[in-house]
Amino acid sequence: MTPGTTYKLTLHNSADDSTLKTNIHTHGLHITGSGDGDDITRFVTGGSCLDYTWDIPSDHPGGTNWYHPHYHTLTNGQTAGGAFGMIIIDDDYSKVHAWAHPQNELLLLVSDIGNSVLGNGITNEVFQVEVGRWYRLRVSTVEPNANTAALSFNGGDCTVHKVASDGIWHNAALTTYSGSSFDMTGASRADYAISCASVGSTTVKWGSGEVATIEAGTFGSNTGSEETDLGNAPPKPASLTGLNDASVDGTFSITMSGAKINRKMWDEDVPLGVVPYGGIYEWTIGGTGAHPYHQHLYHMLIVELEVVASIKKENSMIPSLLLAAVVFDSMPSTSGKEWSW
Q1: How far apart are CA 141 and CA 149, in angstroms?
Q2: Which of the listed residues 46, 64, 215, 254 has the most CB atoms within 10 Å of its CB?
Q3: pLDDT value for 314
Q4: In 77-97, which positions are buried (b, 16+ CB within 10 angstroms) versus exposed (e)?
Q5: Residues of the chain with pLDDT under 50
């Protein structure tokens, strides 16, 4: 998808059961959560269609995102049935080096459903890469209960840098987060810069399951970049910058516990709180070991970590954290100037 473009989608529920409800929900897209946008309370029954309009803002950050059904009480089962996929928002490719351009991408959609761990829907996806060239590996991991596992690169002679998390390029230099193992939840996305220095094979695993093989050789293809400098991440839009030094308009605490937040089950008519648009709020999040915290429509900036002795710097699955929210002013609303969550 391209920033500054409006997309119209029609979801056809092909189920024979006319009472079976479903919908579509995205992770990472900055689009409205009301009307015919990404409203998880809307649904379509078997044999019918439902229209969506997704207005991708002109300053939408490029990144790797995903979608799945999110009709309440049916989410896990329908996702486990294979109703999910990757969504890519294009970067401004004039502002990133060639290794990160589409012709040098490797796409890997990992799923762990039942006793089957797959890469791109098969038992072992195979990628062929040219020795000595850089590639952009986009990964989306799907596990209906959102459990955490390590995405690991085993064997071979490859250098791997994690450069983006959940659709957002890292602030740090692109070579900062290097290694062979990176934790990801069952709803995570990550981009990696990868280059293999010699002929050989690297096995990619999520947890103990093998999902892909990267075969490095001299295949004579025009893919990959021979750049020695990965360059810098593209600049972020105004909505994702400036929070470190911003004044905070209020605070809020959230405690996760399985299917509950602050001891409350989800109820579309009873919000956890209400904030006015245009504010910046600092939230303390705890209990993410029971369920990873994520927020639809708005990204947040981690400003302080607690209990981090065993936590990797790039990892978002942490027991307790202090967060400053992105300014709540980018979602169209017809119901006033407040936003509830």
Answers
A1: 9
A2: 64
A3: 46
A4: ebbbeeebebbbbebeeeebb
A5: 307-341
Dihedrals phi, psi of 131, to nearest 5 degrees: -60, 135
Q: Which residues contact 237 (CB under 8 A, 6 or more apart)?
A: 57, 59, 60, 61
Please list, in sequence order, all residues whose beta carbon lies within 8 angstroms of the beta carbon of residue 94, skipping any fewer than 6 positions away. none
What string of DSSP letters covers 171-225?
A: SS-TTSEESSEEEE-TT-EEEEEEEE-SSEEEEEEETTEEEEEEEEE----S-SB
3-class DSSP state of 97: coil
Contact criterion met (CB below 8 Å) for 329 and 278: yes
d(CA 216, CA 77): 38
> Are 28 and 66 spatial neighbours (Cβ–Cβ below 8 Å)?
yes
Q: What does the alpha-carbon distance between residue 220 and residue 33 come to, in Å, rounded to a whole number?
A: 47
Tell me the residue length of the chain.
Answer: 341
Rounded to whole angstroms, the Cα distance separating 206 from 155 reads 15
C-alpha angle 54-60-66 in degrees, rounded to nearest 5: 60
CA angle 64, 191, 321 (to 5 degrees): 85
Show the tokens assigned to 270: 């009873």
In angstroms, the Cα distances linking 238 to 61, 289, 326, 330 are: 10, 32, 10, 11
Q: How far apart are CA 47 and CA 67, in angstroms?
A: 21
Element (H, E) at 152: strand 149-154
For 92-134, how does the pLDDT look when each residue is reduced to its tens digit (9 = 90+)? Answer: 999 999 999 999 999 999 999 988 999 999 999 999 999 999 9
- 202 touches 213 (CB < 8 A): yes
Q: In sequence order, what are the residues at sequence separation of 6 or more whose Cβ sits closer than 8 angstroms to the Cβ of residue 104?
A: 98, 133, 134, 135, 136, 223, 224, 225
Run of H or E including 77:
helix 75-80
Q: What is the pLDDT of residue 220?
A: 96
- What pLDDT is recorded for position 306? 61
pLDDT at residue 329 in the model: 36
